[in-house]
Design goal:
- The protein has about 170 residues and is an alpha+beta fold.
- It has seven helices and three strands; from the N terminus they run H-E-E-H-H-H-H-E-H-H.
- The protein has a three-stranded mixed β-sheet with strand order 2-1-3.
- Strand 1 and strand 2 form a beta hairpin.
- Helix 2 packs across helix 4.
- The longest helix has 16 residues.
- The two termini are about 20 Å apart.
Amino acid sequence: YLIRTIKEAYPGKEVFLQGITVHGSQDSFDICLVDGQQRTTFFYLLLKFLEYEDCPKIRYEIRKKSNTFLEELDINNITRDDKEKFQDIFFFKRTLRIFERELHGIDKAAFLSFVLEKVKFLFVIIPEDQAKIVFTMMNGNKAKMTDEELIKAELLRCASKKDDRIFE
């Protein structure tokens, strides 16, 4: 869904996405993700697929196999394996296959420039000692969204469409 939304906005309309919440690490320059793992991983995979050379590193510290897969990512080895033992890896590969299908024939360099310049999201920084509380608030009860959050997400999606109309 997200890659199609971005593709529909290509080449010139801005795409606004839901925010990503982070806190800084006191011991390093690392940024610790509080909320937005799927969006962050999506964009990491997209940047890798588009052969972006300055792609930031992403670490899955808790899921070692997922982390290793991302570190050694080979975008040419994404065949479907229904016996894949690790759910993350199964879906990482699936996402890359979707990119391959949805972006087939597109100029990767031009699309990459568009993504870097026109896709926008909020970057919310919170104090490290508040991270667990914020995560629980945002993801309690399996990340159910309130009506207001759903409306906000839909408005952001509509604002990203090529057509200026919100209702079709």
